[in-house]
Design brief:
The chain is an alpha+beta fold and 74 residues long. It has one domain. The protein is built from three helices and two strands, in the order αααββ. The chain has helices at residues 2-9, 16-30, 46-55, and strands spanning 58-63, 68-73. The longest helix has 15 residues, at 16-30. The protein is globular and about 35 Å long. Residues 62-74 have low confidence and may be disordered.
């Protein structure tokens, strides 16, 4: 969660893929053996990332000024 918050505060746009990458990077640093690709049982999928974003209160909204979808904290 700290990495997601820091990313957002630095001006990054959160997407499922960004959250997925941050989660995988964190696990690879802290405990790589839990990831499926290393023989563990934790799979950080796009659906997991979407669920994570919803649980922490992010939602997809249209940015009318730039005409692109971005995620804002609610």
């Amino acid at each position: 969660m700290k990495r997601v918050t820091a990313f957002r505060e630095s001006g990054g746009v959160l997407t499922r893929r960004v959250v997925q990458s941050l989660a995988i990077e964190t696990l690879e640093t802290k405990n790589p053996s839990v990831l499926v690709k290393n023989g563990g049982n934790v799979d950080i999928s796009e659906s997991w990332a979407k669920s994570f974003l919803l649980r922490i209160g992010y939602s997809s909204k249209q940015d009318v000024n730039k005409d692109q979808t971005s995620l804002f904290y609610e």
